[in-house]
Task: structure prediction
Amino acid sequence: MNGRVQRKRETEENFVQEVEIIDHSTRLPGTLVVPAHCHGIVIFAHGSGSSRLSPRNIRVADHLNRDQLGTLLFDLLTWDEAQDRENVFDIQFLASRLAAAVRLVTSQSVCKDLPLGFFGASTGAGAALWAAADLGQSIKAVVSRGGRPDLALPRLNEVTAPTLLIVGGADDVVIALNQRALKSLKQGSMVIIPKATHLFEEPGALDQVSEHARRWFLTHFRS
Result:
């Protein structure tokens, strides 16, 4: 089973579904938002210690929704699974959860034939790129925010989706890890947000992330 819709509601601009992504016997809650005249769906992969309720990911998703980009925010792990640090850094396991999310999205009639992309944060970026390597041409674009693409290093040369790596200018260690990963990507680009730290908490930093992501997804979904 791909998943199920728990309830639906419509706002003035968006069609919203509370869903469950089902991976074997595990059920993972999520929220699918599909704006009118949607250009494509962005599936979010949160980082370690976070969830579908990440305020930063929600803020980026809201920005994307305003420009007719659909979003799915969901929990990659159950509460019990997240207590095991091995699960948090098991990138292949997390990538399988993203694949289950893709199956759910593509099973929804409201998403029929829409292009798909991933937005990954921290360890979620590694999972997003691993999943993109597994899923090939079905993933049209990937964006990493303060990500750990190096965790998917064995698979990066298999990623066909254009990938944007966004890193804070004050996040020195992560800059180095992203620069290394960039060399392995076939279609990769990197943007550094000046003076931003790992969580992009500085005034205006997350807005810049959102805008770069919006442009990247619109460009590659349309192409």
Notes: Residues 3-222 form a domain with the Rossmann fold fold (CATH 3.40.50.1820). The chain has seven helices and nine strands. The two ends are 32 Å apart (CA to CA).
